[in-house]
Specification:
With 235 residues, the chain is of the alpha+beta class. Helices cover 22% and strands 18% of the residues. It is built from four helices and nine strands. The chain has helices at residues 71-99, 119-128, 139-146, 170-174; strands at 102-104, 108-117, 132-133, 153-156, 186-190, 195-198, 204-211, 213-215, 225-227. The strands form three sheets. Strands 1-2-7-3 form a four-stranded antiparallel beta sheet. Strands 4-5-6 form a three-stranded antiparallel beta sheet. Strands 8-9 form a two-stranded antiparallel sheet. It is elongated, with a radius of gyration of 46 Å.
Length: 235
């Protein structure tokens, strides 16, 4: 005879995932969503091909008749002005180089004063003329000052420490020319372009320097820039 049905057993272990089932039926389309935020501007694209030229526009209205121009006369006046300016430049150059004996660089004028004076007197004389004692801080300036005619040596003074360019003679280099400044340690510029020590009490010719451009005083009203020129004053 068939026996009685037994009790329900315990739940078995979870088996492996079976294969996916068939796709379901496509549902209905949903509602349109809200507009999203504006994105960042993308990179500029390449330049396009040049288009065809447009149609020629309509002609403009006729202009008013112009006045008669005496161009020949104006050309003659301008030409004469150019001639006069050239003469004036030559006169100024003659005045600076021949009459005054000035030498110049792009930034400064240099004037040889043929009056024998001591260091202090020469310094004050240059200040009264509107300049300072010449200071050859570059090889160009040093050579320019050495080419002055009329004397074999020129006295110069440098109120600032010697830095950068120097032109000591071989004898001075052996004697260590860069020494503490004393009241008897002035410097002279030889015609060869080299430097040598000299007593400050010695009276010699000297050179003044003047800046080509400097700011005018506050009382001038304009506060602009003017041309600096040496003033010739009696010693």
């Amino acid at each position: 005879d068939q026996g009685a049905i037994g009790e329900v057993g315990e739940e078995g272990k979870l088996g492996k995932n079976g294969p996916p089932g068939l796709s379901g039926v496509l549902g209905e389309m949903g509602l349109v969503g809200e507009v999203g935020h504006t994105g960042k501007t993308g990179p500029i694209g390449e330049r396009g091909i040049k288009g065809d030229p447009g149609y020629i526009g309509l002609a403009g209205f006729k202009g008013k008749p112009g006045t008669t121009c005496d161009c020949g006369r104006y050309r003659k006046v301008v030409g004469q002005l150019d001639v006069n300016v050239g003469k004036l430049r030559n006169a100024v150059k003659f005045l600076k180089n021949v009459i005054l004996g000035l030498k110049e660089t792009e930034e400064r004028y240099y004037l040889l004063v043929k009056e024998s004076k001591r260091f202090g007197e020469a310094s004050m004389n240059c200040k009264l003329r509107g300049g300072t004692l010449a200071m050859p801080k570059t090889s160009e300036t040093n050579q320019l000052m050495a080419e002055y005619d009329g004397t074999s040596s020129h006295v110069f003074a440098d109120s600032s420490p010697l830095q950068g360019f120097t032109a000591w003679s071989q004898e001075e280099e052996l004697n260590s020319p860069v020494s503490p400044h004393t009241n008897s340690s002035c410097v002279e510029l030889l015609r060869s372009g080299t430097w040598s020590h000299v007593e400050c009490e010695a009276a010699m010719f000297f050179i003044c320097e003047f800046p080509k451009s400097r700011r005018r005083g506050a009382g001038g009203g304009g506060g602009g820039r003017g041309r600096g020129t040496p003033a010739l004053v009696p010693s």
